[in-house]
Specification:
29% helix; alpha/beta; 389 residues; Lyase, Ornithine Decarboxylase, Chain A, domain 1; 8-stranded parallel sheet; 8-stranded mixed sheet; TIM Barrel
């Protein structure tokens, strides 16, 4: 691949970032995610500067590559793990049990016992039955109640699957205390890809109301876990991580200034922009000669890493060697023999009209939620190769 692909991605006015330069200088036998560790570290430092006293727990699910975890350990990060496998990954990377929280509200009893035996003391919950599991398998543990928040303005709201209804919060805290657990705080998630800091306001107001009710009811809460939601630049350029985080923290401090601890769990906002996928066009065709749109099939699709194109929620930026040519609308699809493996159709994508099979493409900001979403060979297509530089 020549440097024009990545050069177009950098808008030709800035030096190539390391991962784009690597893609420009190399060829790949199949779709490959390239991640720049230095870019991850720079983003971590920016978030750290903006978040101030908040403790960063990296959401491991975003990208659990060992090299990324090791670099974050060296930077002093903490980690949010969802199960035994992620706990083991963090420990293998050099994290201590004190740096790991078990943030999944849906846990196997055996995994709770394993985490407790490892020395992990912080568990999330949002239901009565989960409390009973924790009390049985991690007696005396500290627990953080996840609540449902409404009025989310994020691109991808997360409130339906996780959290308890606000009216149940005090009952669950009372139950936890009765089971011998230590209720240490509240957690919530503003929603994935929350583009503007001001979008946090209604969510923080809801959480603050429950916080006040709990403290008035005698629960000595000391921790606020504000979750993730820190955005990455995909089709639009987002505000810089440090400035964004600083504005969010101003709002958090205004509502929870008495909290002894504040946690944040960035995943996407920490690693997404540090990676890109090198891919290839397999076919360009029309279903009928009068079709308005071409179909452009890539060698990477929903089942090989681009699951977040579901409902076209994440619109990745795609660049090619032909970006100097005229562009036209097209439907972008993956390679598998499954009809749902279509990336962009509701909003046709603008790609060069001269694009043809064999042309190389770069899909940007793919450092998060790609390699972990890739199947283990659906339809015979391999999962993403990953190179960390």
């Amino acid at each position: 691949m020549n440097a024009n692909v990545a050069g177009q991605a950098a808008r030709a006015t800035k030096p190539l970032s390391r991962h784009l330069a690597y893609i420009a200088q190399n060829r790949f036998a199949r779709p490959t995610l390239v991640v720049d560790l230095d870019a991850v570290a720079a983003q971590y430092r920016a978030l750290e500067a903006g978040l101030g006293r908040a403790r960063i727990h990296y959401a491991v699910k975003a990208n659990p590559e060992a090299a990324i975890l090791k670099r974050l350990v060296a930077l002093g990060a903490h980690f949010d793990a969802a199960g035994r496998a992620e706990i083991d990954m963090c420990l293998a990377a050099g994290a201590t049990a004190a740096q790991i929280s078990f943030g999944n509200t849906i846990k196997r009893p055996a995994d709770i016992a394993y985490a407790h035996a490892c020395g992990i003391t912080h568990f999330a919950f949002d239901a009565s039955e989960e409390l009973e599991k924790i009390a049985t398998h991690a007696p005396g543990a500290e627990v953080c109640l996840r609540i449902i928040v409404e009025n989310c303005e994020a691109d991808w709201p997360l409130s339906r699957k996780f959290g308890c209804a606000p009216e149940d919060a005090l009952r669950l805290m009372d139950q936890a205390r009765g089971l011998g657990l230590v209720v240490n705080g509240l957690s919530f998630h503003v929603g994935s890809q929350t583009r503007e800091p001001d979008m946090w306001v209604p969510v923080l107001d809801q959480a603050a109301a429950i916080w006040r009710q709990a403290r008035e009811a005698g629960h000595a809460l000391r921790l606020v876990n504000i979750g993730g939601g820190f955005p990455a630049s995909y089709d639009q350029q987002m505000q810089g991580a440090e400035a964004y985080a600083r504005e969010v923290m101003k709002q958090v401090e205004a509502r929870f200034g008495e909290a002894a601890e504040i946690m944040a769990e960035p995943g996407r906002g920490l690693v997404a922009e540090a990676g890109a996928i090198a891919a290839e066009v397999l076919l360009v065709s029309k279903k009928h000669e009068n079709d308005l749109h071409r179909w452009v099939y890539l060698d990477v699709g929903k089942f090989s890493g681009l699951a977040e194109t579901m409902d076209e929620a994440i619109r990745y930026r795609i660049t090619t060697d032909r970006d100097h040519e005229a562009k036209g609308p097209c439907v972008v699809a993956g390679p598998s023999c499954d009809s749902v493996d279509v990336l962009y159709e509701k909003q046709p994508y603008q790609l060069p009209t001269g694009l043809k099979a064999g042309d190389r493409v770069v899909i940007h900001s793919c450092g998060a939620y790609t390699s972990t979403y890739a199947s283990i060979g659906f339809n015979g297509f391999p999962p993403l190769d990953v190179i960390v530089i």
